[in-house]
């Protein structure tokens, strides 16, 4: 799906309910996604370091902020449709490149305006095995993963529910941001050679 | 111009620069506005009470909030293209129905990303002559008015610069909100008969 160019001044800032109702439910029913800023990507597997997954796309914009201590931070957000990597009907593999997407919260239900459960979301972070250098260089990655739940799973669902929508945020702050800016002037440090 | 229906999840939240560059400058050059959430309205004149001007349009959505004291407030925002009501080449009439749009700030310049002045904005509020009941009933009205300025006025401008874009916010809070909600169950109180 190519990037969708909007008229100037529009921002894609969907509510949880909009993501479930208008995007994820449509996909589960075999409908094409509405034209939007959501990209389709594989987020799991041996080569799925998040910085590699998104190296060829740029539908996200950088936000730069300064907190009250004048510490500079940068943040990017992207919306992704992906398939979960299932090991069995109940088990999911979260392995992604040299690390994994690690759950930070249990599933939190999403209700529609009538109070009926239509989906759920959970938060995950990208974590490598004991190597803090990699995330210092490549930024801190947070994922909010949206799944169908409640009535969305019983109302005419034709396809197996492997699809999720992820809101992924990549951020750098303080010293790590300096590392990022220095990195542009030096060689790329990969996952296999963190030092 | 009919209301523009966007795909779900998109919000019209233009930056000052986007309003000037992609909307107001285009209009001044005689181009049609890009399809957007901006409506065209007359905001000045004997019959231009803001609640009457917007009685037939609803491109704005209500936001309800509670502050830390649990005081409920409601707010709506709309973007409007309008012509200023000029009395002479330098004087503007701000009369609108039973009140006027009263300037609260001088013009603040708007720069593009290269630091060059492209426009200016000022803040106004709607004020009636000593009758606080009217705004209690019809809400508190704030306007941010965007005008061309600097290079936008010299680069090939063909038309007289009477057009402005206004971001108008209408809000109710606390007791005034109760009056609004009670009003739905009683007669409409007009400007001429505030009591």
Care to give the gist of this entry?
Helices cover 19% and strands 35% of the residues of chain A. Chain A is of the alpha+beta class.
Description:
Chains A, B: One of its GO terms (molecular function) is DNA binding. Chains A, B: Keywords: DNA-binding, Nucleus, Transcription, Transcription regulation. The structure is a homodimer. By secondary structure, chain A is an alpha+beta fold. In chain A, strand 9 and strand 10 form a beta hairpin. The model of chain A has no long low-confidence stretch (mean pLDDT about 80). At the A-B interface, strand 1 and helix 1 of A face strand 1 and helix 1 of B.
Provide the descriptors you would attach to this structure in a database record.
two-stranded antiparallel sheet, transcription (chains A, B), nine-stranded mixed beta sheet, Metal Binding Protein, Guanine Nucleotide Exchange Factor, Chain A, NAC domain-containing protein 19 (chains A, B), homodimer, 19% helix, alpha+beta, 195 residues, DNA-binding (chains A, B), NAC-dom (chains A, B), DNA binding (chains A, B)
Largest sheet of chain A: 9 strands, mixed
* Broad shape of chain A: globular
Largest interface: A-B, 19 and 19 residues
What is the count of DSSP helices of chain A, taking H or I runs of 4+ residues?
A: 5
CATH superfamily annotation of chain A: NAC domain
GO molecular function (chains A, B): DNA binding
Protein name (chains A, B): NAC domain-containing protein 19
InterPro entries (chains A, B): NAC-dom, NAC_dom_sf
Organism (chains A, B): Forsythia ovata
């Amino acid at each position: 799906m190519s990037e969708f160019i909007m008229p100037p001044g529009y921002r894609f800032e969907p509510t949880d309910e909009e993501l479930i109702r208008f995007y994820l439910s449509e996909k589960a029913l075999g409908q094409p996604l509405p034209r939007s800023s959501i990209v389709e990507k594989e987020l799991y597997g041996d080569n799925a370091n998040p910085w590699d997954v998104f190296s060829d796309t740029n539908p996200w914009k950088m936000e730069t902020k300064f907190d009250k201590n004048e510490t500079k931070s940068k943040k990017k957000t992207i919306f992704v449709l992906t398939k979960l990597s299932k090991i069995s009907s109940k088990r999911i593999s979260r392995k992604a490149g040299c690390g994994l997407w690690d759950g930070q919260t249990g599933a939190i239900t999403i209700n529609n305006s009538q109070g009926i459960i239509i989906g759920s979301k959970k938060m995950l972070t990208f974590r490598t095995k004991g190597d803090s250098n990699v995330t210092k260089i490549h930024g801190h990655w947070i994922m909010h993963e949206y799944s169908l739940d409640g009535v969305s799973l019983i109302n005419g669902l034709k396809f197996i529910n492997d699809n999720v929508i992820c809101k992924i945020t990549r951020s750098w702050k303080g010293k790590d941001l300096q590392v990022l800016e220095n990195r542009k002037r030096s060689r790329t440090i990969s996952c296999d050679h963190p030092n």
